[in-house]
Write a structure and sequence with these properties.
Number of strands: 7
Number of helices: 5
Largest sheet: 5 strands, mixed
Strand content: 15-25%
Low-confidence stretches: 17-48
Helix content: 25-40%
Radius of gyration: 18 Å
Shape: globular
Mean pLDDT: 80
Order of helices and strands: HEEEHEHEHEEH
């Protein structure tokens, strides 16, 4: 019995160590162009926490999957944006993706653009294949740690921000939210409040 206890304690120590190393790695800088389009940035400084409701969402540009086209988030001003940080290995992300597909169909004609930011360490091809398999009908970008840091550090997934047509944060959901909660936040973003 002592051997089993020691084994379990060793496993716990190793898992804790891996989690701490992963969290520390998620705070290191990565290569990404952070765009401000000639404006004074109103976003919080890197690592200063989540953007607050009513504040301008941090601007950035990332490459889209699968075509590699650079997409500046500021190019979506005029649309309500659901900005969803996710990963292929994230179980709750897989649950909500079909909802996001349906919500893009339903609210896209009213001016909604869903943007999925894949926070995987895997290659673009694998992310693209996963998104295709899930039937994703919205923009998918390859995320980076630097962009994650602009949004308070992405240490929990899924993480979703809802931006109004001017780029202001109107709501946020952390973890798996029900489809009705997501839809209510989309309506707020479309209304601009």
């Amino acid at each position: 019995m002592n051997r089993n206890v020691i084994f379990v304690l060793c496993v716990v120590v190793v898992i804790t160590g891996l989690l701490l190393v992963g969290k520390k790695a998620s705070k290191s800088p990565a290569n990404v162009n952070v765009a401000n389009n000639g404006q004074t940035p109103s976003a919080p400084a890197q690592g200063s926490g989540d953007p607050t409701k009513g504040s301008m969402a941090p601007t950035f540009e990332l490459k889209s999957i699968p075509d590699g086209k650079v997409v500046p988030i500021a190019s979506l001003h005029g649309k309500a944006v659901l900005l969803n940080f996710w990963a292929t290995w994230c179980g709750p992300c897989k649950i909500e993706m079909p909802w996001l597909v349906d919500l893009q169909k339903k609210y896209g004609p009213q001016g909604l653009q869903i943007v999925g930011v894949a926070m995987d360490d895997t290659d673009d091809k694998e992310i693209g294949e996963f998104a295709h398999k899930m039937g994703v009908n919205y923009i998918v970008l390859k995320g980076s740690e630097k962009v994650g840091d602009l949004y308070g550090g992405i240490d929990r997934l899924p993480l979703t921000y809802y931006l109004d047509r001017s780029g202001k944060v109107v709501d946020e959901t952390v973890g798996l939210a029900s489809e009705s909660v997501i839809e209510d936040a989309i309506k707020k973003a479309l209304q601009g409040s």
